[in-house]
């Protein structure tokens, strides 16, 4: 992957059907001369867009101590100027596994003119990434068009109780799963960890109702095949917000069964 610095302005064109797609740099971006050719190359090699399309292409990524710095190319064939606000973008690996999610706003992006390509600098902070990974040329950015149940914010203490592997899997599962049905409430098993005697299950409580639901305690059974091998009760410190997914953990102690395990709500 190629490095980029910020110094100068330039324009070039790429044909999209019978119309020109113009590569534009905002003055404040300050693109250096040596990077102009890199942007030209990428703008020309990318496949044509149909009319009324918007795309995002990852050009460069650099891991930093506080997260990931990305250079992306936004291309559009829309009929008029526009702004982007509250648009989620997923960072995917070669197998389409989500590595991170960022909601773009006017703070992150410039205004876009019709039929233009424009480089944009994006920062994925640590809480927008789903764990550690190595950079490679197969990573890509995509707009997340399908709705999801937003993760309900939990306290720092609750967040710290999840292992890194459990939280990473929880975040990946949440952005990859369609929302729960309207006026439904369900529980999704996300991750299972075992040690010598105990089993810890990471779960998502998904509320499809518009209103908050008070679930003060939830009795859960650990299943090994068709057999219930343990029982525990999860106590929630707050209501499950409407149209949200609440991450919780359930710990089952003194387990002699070997699994594989599932979890169900005790009837």
Automatic annotation (TrEMBL):
Taxonomic superkingdom: Bacteria
InterPro entries to which the protein is assigned, alphabetical: SLAP_dom
Protein name per its UniProtKB record: SLAP domain-containing protein
Provenance organism: Exiguobacterium alkaliphilum
């Amino acid at each position: 992957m190629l490095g980029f610095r910020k110094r100068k302005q330039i324009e070039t064109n790429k044909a999209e059907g019978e119309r020109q797609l113009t590569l534009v740099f905002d003055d404040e971006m300050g693109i250096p001369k040596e990077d102009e050719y890199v942007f030209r190359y990428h703008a020309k090699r990318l496949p044509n867009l149909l009319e009324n399309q918007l795309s995002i292409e990852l050009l460069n990524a650099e891991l930093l101590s506080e997260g990931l710095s990305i250079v992306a190319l936004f291309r559009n064939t829309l009929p008029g100027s526009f702004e982007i606000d509250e648009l989620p973008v997923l960072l995917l690996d070669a197998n389409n596994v989500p590595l991170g999610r960022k909601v773009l706003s006017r703070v992150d992006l410039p205004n876009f003119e019709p039929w233009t390509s424009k480089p944009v600098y994006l920062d994925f902070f640590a809480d927008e990434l789903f764990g550690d990974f190595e950079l490679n040329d197969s990573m890509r950015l995509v707009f997340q068009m399908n709705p999801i149940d937003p993760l309900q914010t939990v306290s720092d203490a609750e967040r710290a109780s999840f292992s890194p592997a459990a939280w990473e899997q929880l975040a990946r599962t949440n952005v990859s799963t369609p929302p729960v049905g309207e006026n439904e409430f369900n529980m999704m098993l996300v991750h299972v960890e075992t040690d010598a005697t105990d089993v810890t299950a990471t779960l998502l409580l998904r509320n499809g109702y518009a209103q908050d639901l008070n679930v003060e305690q939830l009795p859960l059974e650990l299943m090994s095949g068709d057999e219930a091998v343990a029982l525990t009760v999860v106590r929630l410190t707050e209501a499950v917000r409407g149209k949200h997914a609440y991450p919780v953990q359930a710990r089952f102690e003194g387990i002699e069964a070997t699994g594989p395990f599932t979890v169900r709500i005790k009837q």
